[in-house]
Design brief:
Radius of gyration: 15 Å
Strand content: under 5%
Structural class: mainly alpha
Oligomer: single chain
Amino acid sequence: KAVLPPYVSVIASGGVRSAADMAKSLALGANAVAVAGPVVRALDCSVDSAIAWINERLQELRCLMVLCGAHAPQELSNKPLVILGETGEWLRGRGVYPDARSRIRDL
């Protein structure tokens, strides 16, 4: 079982398309989330479109944080997890059995 040292930052990127993806990444233990594809596509229209896309996702992330009882993004990593469906099956198929407190650093 490999565990990341506390001085290593985890940045979630690739496939992050929504505020829900951002919240899940932070809840799983990422220190930051990077989003490129949707922002670049919005930039094809205009800078204002890209800024609007970012602001909309930030507002959605704030709403998700309220629903989870988190006052700051880093607090999401202290909330209980439920990993079901294909992701849960994928983990279990590899001998990883996360509980409600598992995080990226622990797997």
